[in-house]
Design a protein that fits this description.
Its main location: nucleus. It comes from Pundamilia nyererei. GO terms for molecular function: transcription coactivator activity. One of its GO terms (cellular component) is nucleus. This protein has 103 residues and is mainly alpha-helical. The protein has two domains: 1-56, no CATH class; 57-93. 75% of the residues lie in helices and 0% in strands. It starts with a helix and ends in a 10-residue tail after the last helix. 0% of the residues are buried.
């Protein structure tokens, strides 16, 4: 009997933890959305993952982001090279920090 109460106490603590962290509310709202869905999805688990945000971005979005990343990395490299070139040109006209002209 004492073991049953200890188990029940742990269960109640866990339930309070889930409630306090908002997990129960979130799961409830997703399950209600699934229940209210007029056309039930073929895969309920995918529906839940999508509504919880666990499904990740769509493949088309991922490809667009990869393309944008590659473009931005190339642009960054070009700007770094331009910055390096401009700094070296500037050093021809500006004296170095120790007071001597750079050559």
């Amino acid at each position: 009997m004492a073991q049953y109460r200890a188990s029940e106490s742990k269960r109640e603590q866990f339930r309070r933890y889930l409630e306090k962290s908002g997990v129960l509310d979130t799961l409830t709202s997703v399950l209600v959305a699934l229940y209210e869905e007029p056309e039930k999805p073929n895969n309920a688990l995918d529906f839940i993952k999508l509504h919880l945000g666990a499904a990740g971005p769509e493949p088309a979005d991922t490809e667009a982001l990869r393309t944008e990343l590659a473009d931005l990395q190339q642009k960054c490299s070009e700007l770094m090279e331009e910055n390096k070139e401009l700094r070296s040109r500037l050093m021809q006209y500006e004296p170095s920090p120790d007071g001597e002209a750079a050559e």
